[in-house]
Structure formats: structure tokens, C-alpha cells
């Protein structure tokens, strides 16, 4: 564990309350043990499916999975930096957290794992959707409770390939973030605070492959970071409206953000290069579907359109490729 953050006394939270760890914990254990909470979900839970949308590529420095099935997240919480390790143990989920943000992360653990999501409200209207739901019973929609954490990488993903966006996020977080607290696997970092984002020099954006338009949008967003974080307490449509007050943040970006920060089951992404064609192909055999066709096909799922889209993507049914991939650009090498 990093010596920067001294651990507080370990605790275990169970349904009946908290059980204090007895005194006299060995010194070596005390240095690495975090604060602990256990939680029992009310149904099947697949950690990879639930938390996967929070990962921005295989090299995301804020997200790790380990061979034992654990998921690690490094976050900038309202209480400060924190690291969370989530693991499944039979019917229980165990969360262990380190750093100043540990208590906040443990308080949010049930929502992060979909406790505020109600899959029973969803009624499949197509066979492919019903099959995907049957095969993925552990799908829940995560609610991170953090807006900027999802907004900034969503801005980086505007109008570029995912590889370019993932690279930019990885480089910027590693260079300007701080080491994640706790005994993390490998090199993990907490994303920079708003002030640090605002002070990143123009050449660093360029080196990371971020054009001026996206960099300027991020700079405008971090200037009003507090107001944007307040949106987590709003209903999803109102939250999206607040995000879209920032020039450069449109419907695509606000939907991608609110899906993660609020766990909204209905905020479907429009303006995406691939999603309309995938939905159109899966539900109507129409590979050339646009946003209007996609929204029409998803209309029977009103209130649950994002969940329906997730299940369609998980079905694996995509139209055959007939055109080259979106060309990759790298302004950092110009």
C-alpha cells in the first residue's frame, strides 16, 4: 500500500450491522488491509457484465481484473482518491477499499452493483432479446454516482476510434493522475482532479492524440465540475440537459455518461456510428438503419431502451462487415 494514505481501522459490514475487527491485527496485514463491506444481492450478479462498461479499454489505469475474478477500480470520489476491490464469494459480494475515498466507495457498493436497478421491469419483445436475457441473468446496470469519471472519457471517444480514445485516456491518466491507494495489482492510477485537467498544456493533449475540439470541451466541463457532479442527484433527462449545457457535449456524450453515472435503463445512445445498424440488423434485418429507425424499433422497450440495446449487443448478432473500419488518425505523430 502506498504510504501516502494511512489505513483507518478495518470494518466488516453485513446485513445485521458492522462487526469490528479485533485489536492486535498483525502489522503486515494492517498495512495492506482495507475497509471491508459484504453485500448480498437479491438475484444473479455477473461482476464482469455489471462493471464492464466502466472500463475504458484493456489498458485502463483506473480498472483491473485479476485471475481470481476480482474487479479493481481506482476512483476520485467526493471524499478523495480511493481504490475498490470487488469479489464474489458464493451468494455474497465483498468490497474492500483503501484511501480517503474508501468509505464513500463502500457506501456506494450496492448501487455500483445494480441494487437500484430492477431487471424485472423488463419484458422482452423479440426472441433474440429474450435469449440474450436468458443467457445473461447476471446483467445489472451499474450506477457509479460519479459524473466526471464517465464524462471525460466519453468526450475523448467523440468522432474517433475506440483505440485512439482508450490510448488518450490511458496516457493522460497515467501522466497526470496519482497512484491509486492500496495494494493494487500492477500500475493503477486515480484520474486527475478538475484543476489538474484544466492545467494540462496544449502539447500534452496533442501528444495524447486529442484534437483541440475535444480538449476544449473537457476544459469547459472541468471549469463547472461541481455543477456537473450535482447532476447525479437529478433524474436522467434533467442530468443530460445539464451536461448538454456545456458546449461540445451533445446527446451521444450525455447518454454515454448518464448510462454509467445514473444506471439509467432508458437513456439510449443516439449518434453512434455502429449501434443503429446493429439494432436494425438484430430486430429487423436492416443493416442500414439510422437513429430514427433504431428508436422506432426500440419503442416497445420505452423505459428500458438502454437495457434492450445492451442485450442486443450481448447477443453477438451483428451485421456482416462490408466497409473498411473507420480510419485511425494520430495527431500526436503529426
From TrEMBL:
Membrane-spanning ranges: none
Name of protein: DNA-3-methyladenine glycosylase II
InterPro entries per record: Alkylbase_DNA_Glycosylase/TA, DNA_glycosylase, HhH-GPD_domain
The organism's taxonomic lineage, starting at the top: Bacteria, Bacillati, Actinomycetota, Actinomycetes, Kitasatosporales
GO BP, one annotated term: base-excision repair, AP site formation
A Gene Ontology cellular-component term: cytoplasm
Record GO terms (molecular function): alkylated DNA binding; DNA-3-methyladenine glycosylase activity; DNA-7-methylguanine glycosylase activity
Key word Cell inner membrane present: no
Reaction(s) this enzyme catalyzes, per UniProt: Hydrolysis of alkylated DNA, releasing 3-methyladenine, 3-methylguanine, 7-methylguanine and 7-methyladenine
EC number per UniProt: 3.2.2.21
Keywords: DNA damage, DNA repair
Amino acid at each position: 500500500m502506498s504510504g501516502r494514505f494511512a489505513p483507518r481501522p478495518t470494518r466488516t459490514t453485513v446485513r445485521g450491522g458492522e462487526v469490528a475487527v479485533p485489536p492486535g491485527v498483525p502489522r503486515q496485514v494492517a498495512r495492506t488491509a482495507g475497509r471491508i463491506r459484504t453485500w448480498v444481492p437479491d438475484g444473479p450478479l455477473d461482476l464482469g457484465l455489471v462493471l464492464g462498461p466502466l472500463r475504458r479499454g484493456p489498458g485502463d489505469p483506473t480498472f483491473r481484473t485479476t485471475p481470481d475474478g476480482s474487479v479493481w477500480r481506482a476512483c476520485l470520489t467526493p471524499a478523495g482518491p480511493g481504490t475498490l476491490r470487488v469479489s464474489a464469494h458464493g451468494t455474497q459480494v465483498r468490497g474492500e477499499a483503501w484511501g480517503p475515498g474508501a468509505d464513500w466507495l463502500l457506501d456506494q457498493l450496492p448501487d455500483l452493483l445494480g441494487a437500484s436497478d430492477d431487471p424485472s421491469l423488463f419484458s422482452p419483445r423479440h426472441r433474440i432479446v429474450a435469449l440474450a436475457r436468458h443467457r445473461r441473468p447476471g446483467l445489472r446496470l451499474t450506477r457509479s454516482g460519479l459524473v466526471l469519471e464517465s464524462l471525460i472519457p466519453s468526450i475523448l471517444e467523440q468522432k474517433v476510434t475506440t483505440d485512439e480514445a482508450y490510448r488518450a485516456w490511458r496516457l493522460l491518466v497515467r501522466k497526470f493522475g496519482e497512484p491509486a491507494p492500496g495494494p493494487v495489482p500492477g500500475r493503477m492510477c486515480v484520474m486527475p482532479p478538475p484543476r489538474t485537467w484544466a492545467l494540462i498544456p496544449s502539447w500534452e493533449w496533442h501528444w495524447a492524440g486529442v484534437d483541440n475540439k475535444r480538449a476544449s470541451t473537457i476544459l469547459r466541463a472541468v471549469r463547472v465540475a461541481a455543477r456537473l457532479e450535482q447532476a447525479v442527484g437529478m433524474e436522467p433527462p434533467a442530468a443530460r440537459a445539464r451536461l448538454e449545457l456545456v458546449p461540445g457535449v451533445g446527446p451521444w456524450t450525455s447518454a454515454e455518461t448518464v448510462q454509467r453515472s445514473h444506471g439509467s435503463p432508458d437513456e439510449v445512445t443516439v449518434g453512434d456510428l455502429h449501434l443503429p445498424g446493429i439494432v436494425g440488423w438484430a430486430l429487423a434485418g436492416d443493416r442500414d438503419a439510422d437513429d430514427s429507425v433504431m428508436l422506432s424499433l426500440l419503442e416497445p422497450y420505452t423505459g428500458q431502451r438502454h437495457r434492450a440495446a445492451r442485450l442486443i449487443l450481448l447477443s453477438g448478432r451483428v451485421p456482416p462487415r462490408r466497409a473498411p473500419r473507420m480510419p485511425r488518425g494520430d495527431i500526436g505523430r503529426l
